[in-house]
Every structure is written in structure tokens, then in C-alpha cells.
Amino acid sequence: MCGILAVLGCSDDSQTKRVRVLELSRRLKHRGPDWSGLHQHGDCYLAHQRLAIVDPASGDQPLFNEDKSVAVTVNGEIYNHEELRKKLVNHKFRTGSDCDVIAHLYEEYGEDFVDMLDGIFSFVLLDTRDNSYIVARDAIGVASLYIGWGLDGSVWISSEMKGLNDDCEHFECFPPGHLYSSKTGGFRRWYNPPWFSEAIPSVPYDPLVLRRAFENAVIKRLMTDVPFGVLLSGGLDSSLVASITARYLAGTKTAKHWGSQLHSFCVGLENSPDLKAAREVADYLGTVHHEFHFTVQDGIDAIEDVIYHIETYDVTTIRASTPMFLMSRKIKSLGVKMVISGEGSDEIFGGYLYFHKAPNKDEFHHETCRKIKALHQYDCLRANKATSAWGLEARVPFLDKQFINVAMSIDPESKMIKRDEGRIEKWILRRAFDDEEHPYLPKHILYRQKEQFSDGVGYSWIDGLKAHADQHVTNKMMRNASNIFPHNTPMTKEAYYYRMIFERFFPQNSARLTVPGGATVACSTAKAVEWDAAWKNNLDPSGRAALGVHLSAYNAETPLSNMPSQVIDNIPRMIEVPGVAIQS
């Protein structure tokens, strides 16, 4: 993903201001190491740090219309750009970049063109004819974006918080699926799918419709002019992404340039059972598999860098981001610039453990809607920034607009987990890809419960983090936590440790307000905590907190070493981070 920075209406067109904008733009250079660009028109500045994926030779930014009266700085990929170009027959394009269509669409349709874009994006468009501008972010918030306001009346836009936090009086996350217009001075939501109202859908489940929708989502993300690969952890979601990519790669333009041999990547603690699962899937699909190992100490040593780049103090996000951060550096060192990943499936299909406790299909559906709407604060934040820290782009087909519309229109009764009927979590996704004649995956992999935990090896990562935090945060510090951190007060030493690091990098009140909080059990929303009275006394973001789903007598604090083997064999893992072979 690229990095964008814009300062709009700053009442200062001096060389000093230009130098400052360049200085701040360089804070985003890790996102786009291939080229830097800056366009100034009066007191408006558009800066760009480019990661070249499509048309590396001529697609440098900012981009313009024919007479350069409209300028755009964009971070993202527009998968339907060729189709859109056909609608713009009277326009001349300066580059082959997929983002080149944006300025021309604005000329034809005004501010109402954003919903025509199929892709992930954040952009700032400046119309120099009347000095107006618009800012927009993709539907789910895959591309990170922040907005801030200066005391001089200026509006600031940045792909990351570090691009504006020192210069704005107030700043916040730019809401996904929204557009900000200088003409109205406010936001409006451009993304209005049927599921957003959370009304209960009633479309019958059709496995072939769901299968084709996801295949299309993966295929369109093969648009690239540079080497790419897939993240493969051995779980269901990443394995399906890898299988579809391997199946359809041969017939694409990408294969003509880079060959049809797919590369897959996985990182994990040495001897993790999931590393073995990823190898098994890679062997079945015939990918060139790259396996990276890290130690608990490697992860601990990277924590400060992770928090600086991910820009959060959320415990679960930091735990999951660290191995992905380490893996991304290894992948980039191999010359790969784009990977396809499996984020979003658990939110859409109710794959988290606590969904076992959903009391009815209405509550099940409402929770999936809430989870999708919050993805930009959690998994999207992690996938975008952990990879962008090393100039690597992550694409997420489960969060394709069309696929979400199909998946979220299905009667949620079909998504409900009913083990007595043989319906495990994400059953409808597994069933959609259960093809006897042309199997996508072996049966035991397709129906493997992704949360199955072998021998507790994955917990050493989290236990190591907790032990490290315990060395740096005292009981006395915890007693005063609510006075030091009155907003989102850390409840554990691990959370306190992350918060201290975050506040050192981002001390502003606006910064701490960008991070969500509230009660959660096993990654649930606060509302879902109400599903089980026992959860209210055992709030924790990890999967251990919801183990009562399988064994009500199990205490979530019981050490693994004190559990019988039959209990360990039923411990569910809560989060599949594509390409990361550890458990949460």
C-alpha cells in the first residue's frame, strides 16, 4: 500500500510549509519506497509515497486529468479500472495506473462516482478550478486513513497517524465507506449495502453462488505487474485463498509475466503444529513454500516497532501483528511486493468461538454486522500496517464488496453452528468448496476445525509477552492505572506495557481516542458478552476466555500443564492470522 498525505487550506503557501509537508510525508516512506511526489496548488499540498504494483514505469503520483486542473493522490487498487476506462471514451489517460480513472470519473460524475470503484482505496482529490476537494475511503476500511484539523483552519489527511499527529489540534480515524467534501464541510456515507441496516436476510443458501462469488473476489486480486504470493497458515481461510489462486493463476496476465508457479509464505514458532499444516496444504497445491521461524524473544524485541507502525495499544491486535510484521520483512527481502491474505472470513461467517453461544439467528447476524463494521480498527489495521511497514501490500478477497453482499444476504440460520447436525463453524463456506470431482482441498483440511489446538505450543508466544510485561509493570503501577490512563484503562500488565509505549509515540488525546475499548470475551463485541452470564466475570480478548463453550467446568486461568489431554484436544484457537502459525 502507498502512503498519502494532504494539507488543504492551510493559509500558507510558503517554502517553509512545503518543506514541512515533505518532512511529514517522509514519515510514510516505508509504505511507498518506489517514488515520492508532491503537488502544490496555492495553500493545498498533495504528497504521495508510492509502492508500484500496477504500471510501475509510468504510474507515479499525484495523478491528473488532461489539463491538470484535477489532481489526485491515491493509496489503493482499483480492480475494475479497465471496465471503467471503457466508460470514459472521451478521456485521455496519462498512465496505465489503475488509479488513473479517479480524476476522470470525477469530471464525468462529480462526487457521486465513488461507489463505482471496485477495490481498496483512500484518496484526496483537489479540483483547482474552485479549490474544492473530496476525500474518500473504501467500503470496509482496508486502506488506513486519518483526518485532522489545524488551528489555522486547515484539513489534514494521512494514511497513518504519524503523518499528522504533531501538527493537528484534533484528529481521528477517517470512517470507512465515507466521503468528506469541502463543499459541505462534513462526511457522508457513500457505502450503503443492504446488510448495513442489520435487517435479517432471507436468501436461501446456495453453495455454488457463494463459491463463485469468492472465486471472483480472488481472481480480480491477481491484477499485478510485480511478483506476488499468498499467506498460508494451514487454516481454512488462507488455504482456500491459496487453492483458488493456484487454480486460476495460469490463465492470467500475471502468469505471463511472472510464471504460474505460486509462492506461499508462513511464519511461526519452531515446531508449531500449524507450520506442519501449512506445509501439507502447500504440498497439495504445489506451491513454492517459504517457511520462516521466529522466537518469542524475536517478537518481544519487535514490540516497540510494531506499536509505532500499527498505531494501536489493543492487546489482541499487537499480539497478532508482531509475527505478521516479522514475516512481511522476510517476504519483501525475497523481492515480493504483494500478498493475498484471508482476513474477514470469521466476521462474515461467525467463525469465532463465542458464536457457538449465539442464542438465535437474529443475534448471530447482528453480531456479524457489528464485527464487519469494526474491522478497520482491528484485522484491517493489522493486515494493512504490518505489511506496509516493509513496503508490502496485502489484498483481502473476503472483504470484496460483491462477495460481502452475497455472503451477508444468506439467511443466517444457515450460518448457525449446530454440531449435533454436523455443522461446525463456517460450515456454509466449507460446503461451498467441497467438490468431489475437482477438490479444492483434501477433505480433512477442508473440514479441519481451525481452532483445534495440538499441544499448547502457540500459547508460549502470549505467555512470553505476559512474562515480559510483568518485568516492566509493577503492582503499584497497576493500582494507579485508572489515574494515569482514565480512558480505556488497561486492566492487565500486558495492556499497561503496550499503552506506555503507545503514549510515548503518540501522546495526544486524539491518538488514544482512535483505539477502541470496551468489554470483550474472545474477540467479541461488548453486546455479545451478554450471551453468556459467565463471560461477564471472565473478560479477555483471547480464546481461553470462551472455553466454557466446550467444557463449562474448565477455568480459563488453568495452566495447560495441569489439564488432561482430552481437555487440551478441545481447546479452540480463536484467531487465524493468514500465514502466521501461532495461536492466540
Automatic annotation (TrEMBL):
Keywords: Amino-acid biosynthesis, Asparagine biosynthesis, ATP-binding, Glutamine amidotransferase, Ligase, Nucleotide-binding. Pathway: Amino-acid biosynthesis; L-asparagine biosynthesis; L-asparagine from L-aspartate (L-Gln route): step 1/1. L-glutamine binds at D98. It comes from the Eukaryota. GO terms for molecular function: asparagine synthase (glutamine-hydrolyzing) activity; ATP binding. The record marks E343 as: Important for beta-aspartyl-AMP intermediate formation. The active site is at C2 (for gatase activity). Residues 2-185 form the Glutamine amidotransferase type-2 domain. One of its GO terms (biological process) is asparagine biosynthetic process. This is Asparagine synthetase [glutamine-hydrolyzing].
